Amino acid sequence: MSLVTPEIGLIFWTAFLFFLVLFILSRVAWKPIMTALKEREQSIEDALKSAEQARSEMAKLTAQNQNLLREAQAEAEKIRKEAKVEADKMVAEAKDRASAEYNKELAKAQETIRTERQAAIADIKNQVAQLSIEIAEKVLRKELESSDSQKALVQTYLKETKLN
Q: Is 142 within 8 Å of 136 (Cβ atoms)?
């Protein structure tokens, strides 16, 4: 039973060795362990602070990116609208030019038709006059084959002509 009831010498030496080991550990190992723990705690706190700063910077950058994206979308929409307006304007100008060109060509064609028509009418009149002269000449030759008919015609013309 000596183990269950310790003697005073055993208690003294156990306590003495415990405090000696405690003193040696406090001088040699306790300060470096506590310093290492404090450094570790400080590094964890610094890492948490830097992570929080990074998170806040990330949130700011995300907000800035969203603003930039909205601005870019608005600019793209503005450019699309301007391009559509410009395209519509170009189409309208092209239609106007085509219409003007059509009207110009139509007027030119009408003028050409009118000129050619007048030329054709003048040509027909000349041909009719030529034919009339030829017919009249043939008729007069036929009627004036005899000298009596020629004298009668001259007499008729002389009577119609008044001399002053």
A: no
CB of 63 closer than 8 Å to CB of 71: no
Measured CA to CA in angstroms, residue 107 lies from 111, 117, 122 at distances of 6, 15, 22
Instruction: Output DSSP code: residue 134.
Output: H
pLDDT tens column, 113-150: 999 999 999 999 888 888 888 887 777 777 777 777 77
- The whole-angstrom separation of Cα 48 and Cα 25 is 32
DSSP tag of 28 = I
CA distance 140 to 136: 6
144, 150 in Cβ contact below 8 A? yes
User: CA-to-CA distance for 45 and 38, rounded, in angstroms?
Assistant: 10
CA torsion angle 58 60 61 63 (round to 10):
120
What average pLDDT does range 92-101 have in this prediction?
Answer: 93
